[in-house]
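Hi everyone, sorry if this is the wrong subforum. Our group has a chain we'd like a structural model of before ordering constructs, and none of us has done structure prediction before. Sequence below.
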Amino acid sequence: MNTLPAVEASQPLFVVEHALKIKGRGLALIGFTADQHGLFAKGQLLELTRPDGSDRLVRVLGAEYPPSVELPDPPPETPRYGLLVGPKIGISHVPPGTEVRFAAGQEPAKRIQFSLPDAD
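Answer:
Right subforum, don't worry. Here is the predicted structure as tokens:
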């Protein structure tokens, strides 16, 4: 099992690479790594800090960790996954470079991590 990464309040959990709207589900913020999956739980409050310095609060609706995802060719050195957030937030509200942090008073979920296969 992987251990959860340390979380420092002053550092972002991850930086949004891009966002995808999933009809009927929410907005997927792409950028977290597999070892961070256990930090997030449905209902957590996150603070998004946009590149222009403005911020917004959102709730975690789910974390997408597809066990078999088709990666681009060539694959990224570290694959990134999507965090579903809401409510009522669009792609234009979360530009690339937006920093994601736990909102004040929120803690990591500390769930059991996935067992990741060793790369051959």
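For your construct planning: Residues 38 and 111 are 5 Å apart (CA to CA). The chain has a mean pLDDT of 78.
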